[in-house]
């Protein structure tokens, strides 16, 4: 039985190192992608009126909406400033989607509980903001 030459040993060691490096990079890449996909950057509540809820997309159908929030200036007697925000709803949240549609049709004030994700993915929604719960404000 022949002993491997120095060149063969170097080649085997290099291939082993490259395989381990590739495996390490793959595990780190999957971990980072998972973090960006499921990680939550911010949680909060928006109060206002739902202006629209729609299904959009050519290749990926996503549920998108817009809420109008009124904020008042620092001066007394000034008119409110309307600010709108765009949001998305995940496909699995059918109850949230129905509540948003009902609130938009009735023109009710609502509190929208949302999470903000780290990244936007085209099959998930047009925004990083995802509504998770809808509360109708009682007058």
> Structural class of the secondary structure composition?
alpha+beta
Give the number of DSSP strands.
5
Shape: elongated
As laid out across the biggest beta sheet, the strand order is 3-2-1-4-5
**Count of DSSP helices?**
2
What number of structural domains do the residues give? 2
The run of helices and strands is HEEEHEE
CATH fold assignment of the largest domain: OB fold (Dihydrolipoamide Acetyltransferase, E2P)
Mean pLDDT over all positions: 88
Q: In this structure, how is the largest beta sheet organized? A: 5 strands, antiparallel
C-alpha Rg, in Å? 25 Å
How far is the N terminus from the C terminus?
90 Å
Q: Helical content, roughly?
A: 25-40%
Beta-strand level of the residues, as a percent range?
35-45%
Low-confidence blocks of residues: none
CATH architecture of the largest domain: Beta Barrel
> How would you classify the quaternary structure?
single chain
CATH top level class name of the largest domain: Mainly Beta
């Amino acid at each position: 039985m022949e002993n491997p030459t120095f060149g063969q040993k170097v080649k085997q060691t290099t291939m082993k190192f490259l395989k381990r490096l590739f495996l390490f990079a793959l595990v780190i890449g999957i971990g980072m992608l998972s973090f960006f996909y499921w990680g939550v950057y911010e949680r909060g509540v928006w109060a206002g009126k739902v202006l629209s809820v729609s299904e959009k997309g050519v290749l990926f159908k996503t549920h998108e909406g817009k809420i109008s929030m009124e904020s008042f200036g620092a001066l007394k007697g000034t008119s409110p400033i309307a600010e709108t925000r765009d949001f998305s709803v995940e496909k699995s949240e059918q109850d949230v989607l129905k509540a948003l549609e009902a609130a938009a049709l009735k023109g009710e004030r609502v509190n929208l509980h949302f999470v903000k994700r780290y990244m936007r993915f085209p099959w998930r929604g047009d925004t990083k903001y995802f509504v998770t719960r809808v509360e109708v404000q009682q007058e």
